[in-house]
C-alpha cells in the first residue's frame, strides 16, 4: 500500500516469516522517493508440489495423501502413513505431514527385528538358515551318544521370540559306580561308637566326564554307633540317568560281664557300664567302708581288672586320746552330729534323743554319726553309741568347737570336719534331714538317697 504526502511516497511493506508451523508478522516502514523501484522480495508458491523434500522409507512403505490429490505427495499439508516390511519394526512416528516450514512433522525408520542368540548346548550344536533374524530356522543336532529331547528346530518369529522350547541333548546310558567293601570296626575305648573312614567312590559315564556323586547316609571319618549302618551312594549324569551302590559299616562294642554291686554298697560306672574302657567305682552305704580296690576297668579281652571290693561295717576306735585322732577316722567318710547336754534329765536333750533314736536309719543313709557329750565335770562323759570317749577327746571337742556345758546345744560337721550349723532347741527329724539334704549332700548323694529313701520306712 502506498500513500502520497507532499511529494513523498510512503511505502508499507509487510514481511511474513513462517517458522515451525507458526506465522509471525513483522512491519517495517521506509521512506523512499517515487522514482526508486519497489523490491517485493521472494515470492512463495504454496502450491509447489516439492514444498517438502520427497520421503523414503528403507525396508518399508509410504502411503501419502495430499490436499491436491495422491500424485502431489510433497505439497503443503500432505500426510504420509509409514509401515515396515515383515521382519522390521517401525521406530519413530507412524504418521507425518508436510509443514509450512518445508519440513516433515517427524522422522521414522525401519529397524530389523532380531531374536536373541540361542544358547549353546554342551552336548550338541545348531545351524541357522539366516542367523537370528525373522523367519530364520535353526536346526539342532547332538553329539554321538546323545539324543534330542524336544523339537529338532526353532524359528525366529516376528515378535522377536523363538518358536518351541529349547531342546536338550541327553544320553540313555547310566553312569557306573562301585562302592567300597563293607567293613567292621571295634568301638573306641570307653565309647559306644567308632570312627570309620573310607575313600569315596568314583563314578564314570560314557558322556559326562565327572558325573555328580551324592552320599546318602553318614559321612566318612565320623563316629558310627554300635550295630550295622547302611551307607549308600547315588550318581546322576547330566541326562539324569541314575546309578547307585551301597555297603555296610558295622561297629562292634566289646563288653565284659555285668558287675554286681557289693553288699551294703553300689557301683557308679562310666560309659555304658560294661563296655570296653568303662570304669566302675565301688561305693559303700552309710555306716560301711570299702575294702579292696576302689575301681575296676573293662578290658579288651572282656574281663575286669582287679578283684571286687567289699563294704564292711565301719569300726571307729573310741579309745584314742586326742580329738585329732578321733576326727581323722571320719575325714571325708562321715558327717558328725554332736549333741551336748548339761544332764541326762534335761528335757530338751530327752526330746532330741528320742527323735534321734527314731531317725538312726535316715542318719546312716546321709552318712551321719552321732556323738554325745553328757553332763558336767566330774561326772562328764562322752560316747558314740555305747562306746565311751576319752576325757581328753571330750575336752578337745568342747574346746575345738566351743561347745558349752551349761545348756543344751547341737551342731553339724561336714565330712571335712567344718562346723556348718548349730541348734539350741530340739530339731525334728524332718527339719534335720531337710537341712542336711539341702546344704550338705552333693548331687550324687542326693541321687543315691532318692533310690534308697524308702529303705527306712
TrEMBL record:
Residues 170-253 form the HYR domain. Pfam families: DUF4174 (PF13778), HYR (PF02494), Sushi (PF00084). SUPFAM superfamilies: Complement control module/SCR domain. It is found in: Cell surface; Cytoplasm; Secreted; Synapse. CDD domains: CCP. Disulfide bonds join 142-169, 284-311. GO terms for biological process: angiogenesis; cell-cell adhesion; positive regulation of cell migration involved in sprouting angiogenesis; positive regulation of synapse assembly. It comes from Gadus morhua (Atlantic cod). It comes from the Eukaryota. Residues 1-20 form the signal peptide. Keywords: Angiogenesis, Cell adhesion, Cytoplasm, Disulfide bond, Repeat, Secreted, Signal, Sushi, Synapse. GO terms for cellular component: cell surface; cytoplasm; extracellular region; synapse. Residues 62-112, 113-171, 254-313 form the Sushi domain. This is Sushi repeat-containing protein SRPX2. InterPro entries: DUF4174, HYR_dom, SRPX-like, Sushi/SCR/CCP_sf, Sushi_SCR_CCP_dom. GO terms for molecular function: signaling receptor binding.
